[in-house]
């Protein structure tokens, strides 16, 4: 199992290597955390959050996927949109499989299971607008920028 995770990490570094911006790396981490949270939801709660169609969770998912794929495309203009989407879906699927196997083997109450639960709680409770603000603030501290952010006129609605 460990070797599969190392291979996945190595693949991620090669696939996203030198062309990755600080923003892309940061968004990839968020995307991975979101994938971990959704996998935890599926394996450990029977997909309660997904079944409840939580507006915060689904709004954040849409926002992160849009920002992440846009950043990849910006950094690699030679890739088609379909190639970018395939790359992101492959990353999601690989992460999902690894996390699912881990949770089944070690349990939802393991340390990593508890961490995944916290990710899920965070994504369930924080509105996409508030999360977007957090992303923007963090990017300032790491000197990153979003290259495909919605225009300032586009407001991400608050959800409650």
List keywords for this structure.
160 residues; mainly alpha
Which helices and strands, and how do they pair?
Blueprint: H1 2-16, H2 22-45, H3 48-51, H4 55-75, H5 81-106, H6 111-125, H7 128-141
Helix pairs in contact: 1-5, 2-4, 2-5, 2-6, 4-5, 4-6, 4-7
Describe the structure.
By secondary structure, the protein is mostly helical. It contains seven helices and no strands. It has one domain. The longest helix has 26 residues. The N terminus is likely disordered.
The N- and C-terminal alpha carbons lie at a distance of 40 Å
Count of distinct structural domains: 1
Spell the H/E element sequence: HHHHHHH
What is the gyration radius calculated from CA atoms?
A: 16 Å
Helix content: over 70%
Structural class, from helix and strand content? mainly alpha
Low-confidence stretches: 1-16, 151-157
Largest sheet: none
Q: Determine the strand fraction and express it as a percent band.
A: under 5%
**Overall pLDDT level:** 82
Structure summarized in a few sentences:
By secondary structure, the protein is mainly α.
